[in-house]
Write a structure and sequence with these properties.
three-stranded antiparallel sheet; 3 helices; alpha+beta
């Protein structure tokens, strides 16, 4: 995964992630679709991350992901719904390429403060399962064609 503007291409960095049906996120603090994430009570629970933004501290209690082919050849769209312990939801979408691993995608989500580091392994498993389902459905379609 590359950082937005990086020569490496696709990324799940804040400028590439979007709320479902929304515009690209432009403010590093607005990583989710809920305005209440900006309330001071949440800011006090975050600390600086490696990317210079904020590190998430809330535990994930529910998460789901879907991977589907993007309109561009060789690219995919990852759509995720994350529910935190305080019942706040974060819905994200972003593009990635076939050569990017679940570990790399999860690393980037942690690095940019979308999820806490302790939930990294859960994201790796979830993204890996979603990628496998997408590839399986593509193989089925290819066999039928």
């Amino acid at each position: 995964l590359g950082v937005a503007g990086d020569h490496r291409g696709s990324s799940l960095s804040p400028s590439r992630l979007r709320p479902f049906g929304g515009d690209p996120l432009t403010n590093g603090l607005q990583h989710g679709v809920s305005a209440s994430l900006m309330e001071p009570k949440h800011e006090a629970r975050k600390k600086p991350s490696r990317a210079g933004e904020f590190e998430e501290t809330r535990e994930l209690v529910e998460l789901s992901a879907e991977v589907r082919p993007a309109e561009q050849s060789g690219a995919y769209v990852l759509a995720m719904m994350l529910k935190f312990e305080d019942r706040m939801n974060r819905e994200l979408t972003g593009q990635f390429t076939d050569d990017e691993s679940p570990e790399a995608l999860s690393d980037e989500l942690v690095e940019y403060g979308f999820v806490r580091p302790r939930d990294h392994h859960r994201l790796v498993d979830l993204i890996g399962q979603a990628m496998a389902l997408c590839r399986q459905s593509q193989a089925t379609v290819d066999e039928i064609s």
